[in-house]
Amino acid sequence: MTPTVPHRVVILGGGFGGLQATLALRTAAVSVTLVDRRNFHLFQPLLYQVATGVLSPANIATPLRSLIKHQANAQVILGEAVGVNAKERTLHLAEETLSYDTLIVAAGGRHHYFGHQEWAAHAPGLKTIEDATDIRRRIFTAFEAAEREEDPLKRASFLTFVVVGGGPTGVELAGALAEIVRHTLPREFRRIDTTSARILLIEASAQVLDVFADELPRHAMAALAGLGVTVRSGTMLSHVDADGVLLRHGDLEERIATRTVLWAAGVQGASIGAIIAAATGAALDRAGRIVVGQDCAIAGHPEIFVIGDLAHVGGLDAKPLPGVAPVAMQQGTYVAKLIRARLEHRTMAHFSYRDPGSMATIGRHQAIAQVGRWRLTGTLAWLAWLFIHLMALVRFENRVLVLLQWTWHYLSWNRNARLITGNAPMPSPPAAERVIS
Amino acid sequence: MTPTVPHRVVILGGGFGGLQATLALRTAAVSVTLVDRRNFHLFQPLLYQVATGVLSPANIATPLRSLIKHQANAQVILGEAVGVNAKERTLHLAEETLSYDTLIVAAGGRHHYFGHQEWAAHAPGLKTIEDATDIRRRIFTAFEAAEREEDPLKRASFLTFVVVGGGPTGVELAGALAEIVRHTLPREFRRIDTTSARILLIEASAQVLDVFADELPRHAMAALAGLGVTVRSGTMLSHVDADGVLLRHGDLEERIATRTVLWAAGVQGASIGAIIAAATGAALDRAGRIVVGQDCAIAGHPEIFVIGDLAHVGGLDAKPLPGVAPVAMQQGTYVAKLIRARLEHRTMAHFSYRDPGSMATIGRHQAIAQVGRWRLTGTLAWLAWLFIHLMALVRFENRVLVLLQWTWHYLSWNRNARLITGNAPMPSPPAAERVIS
Q1: Are the beta carbons of B408 and A427 separated by less than 8 Å?
Q2: Interchain CB distance below 8 Å, B401 and A401
Q3: Nearest CA to CA, how far is A51 from chain B (Å)?
Q4: What is the residue-averaged pLDDT of chain B?
Q5: From the list B40, B57, B95, which residue is nearest A428 (CB)?
Q6: Pick from B130, B404, B412: CB nearest A400
Q7: Closest CA to A77 of B148, B413, B17
Q8: Structural domains of chain B, ranges and CATH numbers in brackets
Q9: CB 3.0–4.6 Å: which of A288, A301, B211, B216 could bond A269 by disulfide?
Q10: Environment class of residue A157 by beta-carbon count within 10 Å: exposed (0-12), middle (13-18) or buried (19+)?
């Protein structure tokens, strides 16, 4: 039976976790308010394909309102959370205040520059649509600048790309860059040889993708080398500026002249996490994630859940779950079920993550995957990656569009979405140049 | 026979005219340098569909380099022209200087606010990809702001859209807005009724689309009314600010409270036109177009051609040709032929425009078209419009993508590309609001 005033669930963030929680509450006797800064759900795993000119932003983004159009118990509010009052149970947005009975915080993460926020200007990360079009602009502008540059050293620095971080995103970006310089661009320039471009992938650990098991990281490193990517493992970044990076490998330091540095190294919890922690007395871990119990709720505040990239489930001593979509989605489903159970005075078991397996793509016909004890590499892993990502795309329309563009890209090597757009459409003078000279 | 140093043709602008001239010189014994500020050719006639969330930017933009990839005698330079030295035959870019034997100026047009450049901030026009995503942001942000607004008068101003200019672009924008409020959004908001939104189309002449013949403008006005657009013909805009416009109809003045004003009223020649006119002694017409002879060349400078929206062909007294793609493309072909003829010491007849007919779309199943003595309206005209625009899209890939998205939009009324992106992702506080209060 629906009470006269339904239980009010406010969900902060329309990413994988928040959206899943919203949809899972569809038939519950609650009113759901989904709050997001953006008017769309973003399919982040394919963001690197926007950054490298294969897909358009709208192909991997779906308006939140159209997703909950037919869900009568849900509404969307476009807004940014600025605070929470845990005692009065209110979430404060910039322009209004929302009362909740249950709050689900699914605000995700942001780039982490390990205390070097000044690097952000020279080494953009990849979290938002704007990040992706900014990176796209930087990548394709670098070739334009190289084509026009007479000085061979400067030209070489425009043709040097440094990707920091050997996780899935860094590997995907480096692999895509390698395909761009070898297959997409070679016949399009008249003065430069794009195949002479250098692509460096910097990773602090001994191998890239080192959360993968057994021989998979080694396989990935070999595949990257085969694509022409120079992998620098066991290497730290010690400095970034407008015209280069400083790398440290043990006691050795090396300066690499480059105009394009992409950041795929660190992620930390969204800044609202600290505000919520302060308001509730919750602990934050070193990466800015909110520490919650096995039920995803904040200790002493069973009515506040944290899910997804912002959550550190099971206490500070528990190993944090990986920041991937399946974790967030399973937590969204779990919390929705728990809310229903509470309304029906039932109890529920703790949250436990069922790992569906992991995969990372490196390039055409090159991916790695592990599912339980299974290990997959090469074309089969790549096809599995394509299929799973295509199926996971929220909207049918997007699925067909993405498939069509992937097919076209596969056949032609072209990257038709490589528009240089945004605030700095001109490659000349490059922003970096202006600062230096 | 190819001379040792081929005749150097520099083409400024990769729009319809410049691209056509480049491609038409493919087999000529010349070297072609195509200069553009952007790295893509933009299919401007469909830009309004990006602004209203049906298509993505990359669907109507194609990288110039991929278009001339196989044209060995052509190269692309990304750069902005800042001057010309007609005596030394050099075109000056921000960062380099290009020598030419023949210069083709195809730099197009820009918005014209009739001396009120300050209106630009409140009434953006639609010429570039950035314009389109800015307008898209404004349109969809207005509904978000209305959904949150408590004050009924302010809410109504967020739900009032004013389109200035009853040419094809203004009519297309107004028609698309009407479909958005009636069909795309209604079930997506919980507090506002989007069908209560007002859409005003302001036109100074007695009727919209008044370059069309016979009963076509009247038909268009009736179709707009049927869609729910309020057409204010014979009406001038006398003021625009952040929260409204002032309209003048004869002696009557009326203030309309609105947060969204779109400019589709005036076009003038690109600013490089004035620089080139000054350097060559060419005359400019009142709309900033360069006056050229019947052969598209500047008087006294047979080696400098001006084509497309920036050209006023046949002298100041001749009626300027319409600023449409067929004119620019035919001039591009003509000039390419004339360059070949000169190299072969042949003469050629003057340029003459063969009008393929005109069409404008209003909304679903609603368009008008005239071809010679033929007049077409309604579904047939609309299907013809769809077909012709689809065929005209430069790349095969784009054609299929656009067709797919049109089909999906047709079936669902959804506008999946309506992302609120860019520098001001948050609708709250709206930029306008901040200025005023």
Answers
A1: no
A2: yes
A3: 13
A4: 93
A5: B95
A6: B404
A7: B148
A8: 7-37+79-111+267-343 (3.50.50.60), 117-265+359-436 (3.50.50.100)
A9: A288
A10: buried
* B397 assigned to active site: no
Helix or strand run (H / E) with residue A223: helix A216-227
Q: Residue A152 carries which side chain, given as an amino acid letter?
A: P
Per-residue confidence (pLDDT) for residue A71, from 0 to 100: 96
Q: How far apart are CA B279 and CA B85, in angstroms?
A: 7
pLDDT score at A432 = 34
With CB atoms and an 8 Å threshold, state whether A419 touches B58.
yes
Distance of residue A132 Cα from the nearest chain B Cα, in angstroms: 12
Task: Please report residues of A whose CB lies closer than 8 A to that of B134.
Answer: none
What is the DSSP code (8-state) at residue B340?
A: H
Task: Please tell me which residue of chain B has the smallest CA distance to A425.
Answer: B38
Cβ distance A63 to B418 less than 8 Å, yes or no, reads yes
pTM: 0.93
| Angstrom distance (rounded) from CA A255 to CA A4 | 67
User: Does B80 sit within 8 Å of A37, measured CB to CB?
Assistant: no
Q: Most B CBs within 10 Å: which of A39, A400, A437, as the mutation test of the B interface?
A: A39
Can you tell me the distance from the alpha carbon of A170 to that of A262, in angstroms, rounded to the nearest whole number? 8
Residue type, A329: M
Of B57, B63, B147, the CB nearest to A421: B57
B56 contacts in chain A (CB < 8 Å): 56-59, 417
Q: Which residues of B touch A401 (CB under 8 A)?
A: 401, 404-405
Cβ–Cβ under 8 Å, residues A141 and A159: no
Contact between chains at B408 and A397 (C-beta distance less than 8 A): yes
**DSSP string spanning B338-349?**
HHHHHHTT---P
Which residues in chain B are closer than 8 Å to A59, comparing Cβ atoms? Answer: 56
Name the residue among A134, A125, A129, A101 with its Cα closest to residue A42: A129
Confidence band of B393 (pLDDT split at 50, 70, 90): confident
Report the distance separating Cα B175 and Cα B198, nearest Å: 12
- DSSP, residue by residue, B232-270: ETT-EEEEEETTEEEEEETTEEEEEE-SEEEE-S-EEE-
Tell me which residue in A37, A130, A397 faces B416 most closely, judged by beta carbons. A397
Q: And the tokens for A259?
A: 């105009």
Strand bridging mode B267-269 / B109-111: antiparallel
Query: What is the SS3 assignment for B83?
Result: strand
Which residues from A are below 8 Å from B412, CB to CB? 397
Q: Cβ separation of A78 and B416 shorter than 8 Å?
A: no
Measure the CA–CA gap between B18 and B41, rounded to whole angstroms: 10
Contact assignment for A416 to B62 by CB distance below 8 Å: yes
Question: What's the start-to-end Cα distance of chain B, in Å?
Answer: 71
Give B331's Cβ-side CA count (13 Å radius).
33
Residue B235 sits at the vertex; the CA angle it makes with B233 and B238, to the nearest 5 degrees, is: 155
Which backbone phi and psi does B53 adopt, to 5 degrees?
Answer: 85, 15
Q: Which of B95, B118, B144, B172 is catalytic?
A: B172
Option in A93, A129, A428 nearest B79 (CB) = A428
DSSP for B377-406? EHHHHHHHHHHHHHHHSS-HHHHHHHHHHH
Closest CA to B174 of B150, B139, B206: B139
Count of A-B CB contacts under 8 Å: 161
**Rg over CA atoms, chain B:** 23
Give the mean model confidence (pLDDT) for residues A323-336: 97
For residue B59, CA distances in Å to B47, B67, B134 come to 10, 15, 17
Amino acid letter for position A37: R
A341-394 pLDDT tens trace: 999 999 999 999 999 999 999 999 999 999 999 999 999 999 999 999 999 887
List phi, psi (to 5°) of A210.
Answer: -80, 0
